[in-house]
User: What shape does this take?
Amino acid sequence: MFRGKIVIIGAGAVGSTTAYTIMCGGLFNDIVLIDINHDKADGDALDMAHGVSFVKPVNISSGSYEDCRDADIIIITAGAPQKPGDTRLSLVSRNAGILQNIVSQIMKYAPKDVILLVVSNPVDILTYVTWKLSGLPKRQVIGSGTVLDTSRLKYVLSRRLFVDTRNCHTYIIGEHGDSEVPTWSLTNIAGIPIRSFEGMDEKAFDDMRREVVRAAYDIIDKKGATYYAIALAASRICACIAGEENSILTVSAVLEGEYGISGTALSVPSKLSGSGIEWIPEISFAADELEGLKNSADTMKTIIQELPQS
Ligand code: NAD
Assistant: This one.
C-alpha cells in the first residue's frame, strides 16, 4: 500500500478535521499543516500527534511551504468560510485573492507530479483558478466538488427508503452549490430504478434536492461551519489517488469540451488514479440533467470571466 506525504494548507475547521481523518485512515506517512496562523497549525498538529500511538505510524507536524518539496498531494482548505446567509459564490473574490498567494508559494517548491486538491469555496471556481495559476496538467488539479453533495443525497435516500446508504447509487453533478443537479435518471437502489419505489415522484425529488442544497446552510446556521463530512470526502479522494483505486467520483474537474463544456471546472463523474483524473466518461444523463449541468457551467463561467486574473 502506498504511503506518501500530504500537505494541508489551512488549519481551520476543515483543514484540521481533514488532517485528523487522514491520520485515522492510516494511508500516509507524513501530514503537514500550514496556516498563516502558525500557532493554530502547530497546536492542532501537536494535539493530533499525541494520539499517534493509537493509529498507524505517521509524522504529523506544522510546517512551511518548503514542506511541499516532496508532497504527493496538497489540499487547499485556506480561506474565508461561509457565514450564516452567505452563498458559496459570495466568497469568490476574497478566496481567489488568498489562493493566488498560496498557489504561487506551493509551485515554488512542489514536485511536477504533485496533485492539488482544492476544497475552499466556491470550489469549482477556485479549482479552475488553481489550475490556471499552477500551470499543472488539468488531471493534477482536482476540486472536492460534489463528492460531499452526492454523499448527502445518498444519506437522504437511505433515510427515506430505509436501506443502507451504500446501496443508494446516485450522482450530484454541476456546481458544488445552489445550481447543483441530482441525476434521478441514473439513481437506483441496489440496481432498482428510483422511480419504481412508491412515493418517489417529482415532489419527492424536489424535496430531496432542496434538502441537499440546504444542508450546508442549515448546519452553518446551527453551529457555524461544516467539517466532518467534507473531511471524510477529502480523505476518500486522497485514498483513491494514493491507493490507485480507479474509483469514479464526482470531483470537480477542469472541463475542455466534455459534455460540450469548457472554461470552468465542474463536477462530473471522473475516474481517479494515482496520477489524478485519468478519465472523464461521457455518461448519458437525461436532457434536463444535461441542461442543468450546462446552466451550472454558465454560472461558473460568468464569475470566472469577471475575476481580475482571468
Ligand atoms: P476556517 O476559518 O475555520 O479556516 C480557514 C483557515 O484558513 C484559517 O485557519 C485561516 O487562518 C487560514 N488561512 C486564511 N488565509 C490563509 C493563507 N493565505 N494561508 C494559509 N492559511 C490561511 O474555515 P473552514 O470552515 O475551515 O473553511 C475553509 C474553506 O473550506 C472555506 O472556503 C469553506 O467555505 C470551505 N468548505 C468547503 C467545503 C466543500 O465541500 N468544498 C465544505 C466546507 C467548507
